């Protein structure tokens, strides 16, 4: 046993370094002779590095010692933050304020320290920690600090689809000219719409990643999730939760959709087919879902059933989605404004119309993506603030499943489908069982909400049961995802 132990420890150390970033420690002590000097602390950046992080620590503040921070890469200047930041990082796609994103050349880099002040007889020890993440760790999101804007489990309201200057978003300039629209205006529009999160989904690019990182501290009630609208000649799909570029050259470098679906799954992101019922010809090139080769639909986690104002009618995605369910492909219905102009409150697709409500364990990227995959998701077509839609299947033998959950129910067993609703105007309710619709009577609850129920008997086969809310004129207001019966995941 005694001889085995060092081997075991060596193996543990190796596995740790394979999973975690490399950390280098550069430290020293400043004295009065360093007053108004610059110091370079060299370190090596190996090939394949995806992010360099630098953290400076010292406690000289009590003696009025000030240390400025900057960074030189193997080719020269990379950034400077003076005394305003103690922790910075640079990667290919984003960087802290004052630093340049871009390629990370291998070779000797230097942390640059400037000392505007240290008193003559003072000694100030400092510690600089340099963290190196590999490109693979960055693409997998392992370099990203966990961000939770609200730790409470709740329904969170967001918009999953929008464009800005980083692709084809445009709006009116100060002089009234149509110009590429700054992303910040979209985010402010989302705040005005009362949203908790947005996914910014630019066409085939990731140039917005840096702005999202820089804007997030200011938007500390609005979670900013980077996405990309994979825009091909055979359809569009949103990827929610990207860390870098995704392949989009379908029929060229990407033979079919399936390798992309596998990459999305590996990286913990969500793949959502966009506006599947839009035309695909010269009216809207590549917009409709028209894959040339078979797609493994098990890798598709979501479908955009309401794109902008297309909730009802031939361009609604509801029919496409329900056909997938009927064929046994389980995927979550979501909505997205596809806004290209945050200033056009009365235009075809303002931010937040529709909103997608996701029941998540917290307001964080990870919890929201998990909530979308799980399917406790409601599309709120008009973003009616304060709206709520719950669905539960309660079996006569005392078990239950909520929206997005599975339950096994043998042939002949009875259950009750229960829905509870809050909406700021009178509405109609429709239960949908395997695509067949039936109206239900709403009754008021003591808590001010309304409810309806449906008795239902299982035949032991696979079923999906859900609920829609409609206005008096029949137009769709809220679309609920199903409770699944006898589906194995
Ligand atoms: Zn599109
Ligand atoms: Zn779009």
Automatic annotation (TrEMBL):
<dbReference type="GO" id="GO:0035312">
    <property type="term" value="F:5'-3' DNA exonuclease activity"/>
</dbReference>
<dbReference type="InterPro" id="IPR016195">
    <property type="entry name" value="Pol/histidinol_Pase-like"/>
</dbReference>
<keyword id="KW-0732">Signal</keyword>
<feature type="signal peptide">
    <location>
        <begin position="1"/>
        <end position="20"/>
    </location>
</feature>
<dbReference type="GO" id="GO:0004534">
    <property type="term" value="F:5'-3' RNA exonuclease activity"/>
</dbReference>
<protein>
    <recommendedName>
        <fullName>Phosphotransferase</fullName>
    </recommendedName>
</protein>
<dbReference type="InterPro" id="IPR052018">
    <property type="entry name" value="PHP_domain"/>
</dbReference>
């Amino acid at each position: 046993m005694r001889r085995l132990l060092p081997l075991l420890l060596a193996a543990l150390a190796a596995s740790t370094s394979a999973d975690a970033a490399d950390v280098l420690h550069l430290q020293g002590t400043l004295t009065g002779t360093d007053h108004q000097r610059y110091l370079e602390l060299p370190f090596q950046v190996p090939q394949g590095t995806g992010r360099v992080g630098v953290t400076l620590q010292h406690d000289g503040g009590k003696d009025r010692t000030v240390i400025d921070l900057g960074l030189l890469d193997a080719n020269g200047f990379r950034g400077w933050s003076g005394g305003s930041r103690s922790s910075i990082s640079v990667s290919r796609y984003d960087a802290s304020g004052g630093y340049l994103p871009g390629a990370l050349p291998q070779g000797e880099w230097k942390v640059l320290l400037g000392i505007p002040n240290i008193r003559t007889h003072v000694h100030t020890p400092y510690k600089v920690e340099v963290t190196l993440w590999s490109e693979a760790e960055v693409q997998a999101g392992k370099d990203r600090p966990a961000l939770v804007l609200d730790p409470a489990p709740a329904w969170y309201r967001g918009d999953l689809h929008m464009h800005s200057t980083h692709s084809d978003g445009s709006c009116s300039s100060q002089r009234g000219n149509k110009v590429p629209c700054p992303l910040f205006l979209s985010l402010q529009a989302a705040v005005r719409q009362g949203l908790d999160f947005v996914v910014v989904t630019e066409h085939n690019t990731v140039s917005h990643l840096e702005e999202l990182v820089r804007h997030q501290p200011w938007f500390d009630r609005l979670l900013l999730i980077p996405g990309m609208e994979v825009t091909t000649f055979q359809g569009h799909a949103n990827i929610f939760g990207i860390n870098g570029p995704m392949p989009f050259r379908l029929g060229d470098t990407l033979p079919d959709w399936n390798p992309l679906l596998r990459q999305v799954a590996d990286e913990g992101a969500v793949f959502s087919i966009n506006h599947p019922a839009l035309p695909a010809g010269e009216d809207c090139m590549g917009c409709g879902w028209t894959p040339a080769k078979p797609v493994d639909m098990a890798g598709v986690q979501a479908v955009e059933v309401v794109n902008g104002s297309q909730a009802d009618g031939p361009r609604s995605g509801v029919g496409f989605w329900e056909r997938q369910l009927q064929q046994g492909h389980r995927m979550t219905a979501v909505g997205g404004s596809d806004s290209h102009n945050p200033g056009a409150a009365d235009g075809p697709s303002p931010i937040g119309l529709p909103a997608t409500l996701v029941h998540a364990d917290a307001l964080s990227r990870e919890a929201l993506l998990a909530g979308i995959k799980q399917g406790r998701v409601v599309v709120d077509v008009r973003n009616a603030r304060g709206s709520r839609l719950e669905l539960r299947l309660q079996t006569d033998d005392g078990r239950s499943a909520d929206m997005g959950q599975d339950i096994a129910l043998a042939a002949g067993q009875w259950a009750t489908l229960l829905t509870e609703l809050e909406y700021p105007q009178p509405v109609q309710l429709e239960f949908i069982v395997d695509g067949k619709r039936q109206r239900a009577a709403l009754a008021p609850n003591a808590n001010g909400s309304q409810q309806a129920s449906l008795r239902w008997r299982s035949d032991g086969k696979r079923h999906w049961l859900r609920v829609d809310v409609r206005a008096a004129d029949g137009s769709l207001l809220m679309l609920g995802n199903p409770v699944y019966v006898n589906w194995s995941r």
